[in-house]
């Protein structure tokens, strides 16, 4: 009887161990499957951008260049400035897309370095506004900066500029003609809070979470037919994560959207370290 109970106990112990091992193997397989799925989504997104989103602006530039050549050969000049303006705008959008693409590729391969330094956030905000001014002007959208003042922060300057450029560009894209985009900075002496808001078309709740996922990324046409890849917001999420920043989206369809960003413990009295 004792030997029988011992044998049964050993068998149950073995079965329990095998069950645990099987559960671990299954969990590992699921994790591997998700990794492969994400890698395939990333690859598909990359080729989609190259095949379509990079080709389109170049086709547009070549088309307007042909129109300029035709008009010049026929002695017409009344539309030249308009054609040049379209070429310039397409070139700027292509450069922004290439920058996002290169940053994203670097982040995927682990080559992107997180390099915080101390800088004046007000200058970065002003620089971003200058970069997107042409897109806003084309739609007669006003950009308002609230509470702009010198404020030193210790963050990755290039990443912060990319975050702001993508969010402000997005606001312009989804705001109607004669609308408004607002950038507001706040600080309690320790944290930096940035708000980017607009009175545009808003974001439907059903797609809000998908905006920041590479395997579900959605690109919707802007109010003036602007195209996009959805890559900018994915970069924004990655860069905010590297800064351990908190972020929140408040949006109402047909009324507008606000991105609220909180960067903790980053404010400095002045530049105190050699960067």
UniProtKB/TrEMBL annotation:
It is an enzyme of class 2 (transferase). This is histidine kinase. Its EC number is 2.7.13.3. The keyword Ribosomal protein does not apply. PANTHER family: SENSOR HISTIDINE KINASE RCSC (PTHR43711:SF26), TWO-COMPONENT HISTIDINE KINASE (PTHR43711). InterPro entries: HATPase_C_sf, HATPase_dom, His_kinase_dom, HisK_dim/P_dom, HisK_dim/P_sf, Sensor_HK_Regulatory, Sig_transdc_His_kin-like_C. Transmembrane segments: none annotated. Residues 49-267 form the Histidine kinase domain. SUPFAM superfamilies: ATPase domain of HSP90 chaperone/DNA topoisomerase II/histidine kinase, Homodimeric domain of signal transducing histidine kinase. The keyword tRNA-binding does not apply. Keywords: Kinase, Phosphoprotein, Transferase, Two-component regulatory system. GO terms for molecular function: phosphorelay sensor kinase activity. It comes from the Bacteria. It catalyses: ATP + protein L-histidine = ADP + protein N-phospho-L-histidine.
């Amino acid at each position: 009887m004792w030997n029988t109970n011992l044998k049964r106990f050993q068998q149950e112990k073995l079965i329990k161990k095998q069950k645990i091992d099987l559960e671990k193997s299954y969990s590992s397989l699921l994790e591997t499957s998700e990794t492969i799925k994400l890698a395939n989504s990333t690859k598909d997104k990359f080729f989609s951008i190259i095949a379509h989103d990079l080709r389109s602006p170049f086709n547009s530039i070549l088309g307007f260049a042909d129109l300029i050549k035709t008009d010049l050969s026929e002695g017409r000049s009344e539309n030249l400035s308009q054609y040049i303006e379209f070429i310039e705008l397409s070139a700027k959008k292509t450069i922004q897309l290439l920058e996002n693409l290169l940053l994203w590729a670097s982040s995927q391969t682990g080559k992107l370095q997180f390099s915080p330094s101390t800088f004046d956030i007000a200058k970065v905000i002003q620089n971003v506004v200058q970069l997107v001014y042409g897109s806003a002007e084309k739609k007669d959208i006003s950009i308002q900066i609230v509470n702009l003042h010198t404020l030193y922060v210790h963050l990755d300057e290039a990443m912060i500029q990319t975050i702001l450029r993508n969010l402000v560009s997005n606001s312009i894209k989804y705001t109607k003609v004669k609308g408004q985009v607002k950038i507001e900075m706040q600080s309690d002496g320790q944290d930096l809070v940035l708000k980017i808001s607009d009175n545009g078309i808003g974001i439907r709740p059903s797609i809000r979470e998908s905006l920041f996922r590479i395997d579900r990324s959605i690109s919707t046409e802007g109010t003036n037919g602007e195209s996009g890849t959805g890559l900018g917001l994915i970069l924004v999420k990655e860069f905010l994560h590297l800064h351990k920043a908190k972020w929140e989206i408040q949006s109402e369809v047909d009324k507008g959207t606000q991105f609220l960003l909180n960067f903790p413990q980053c404010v400095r009295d002045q530049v105190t370290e050699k960067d």
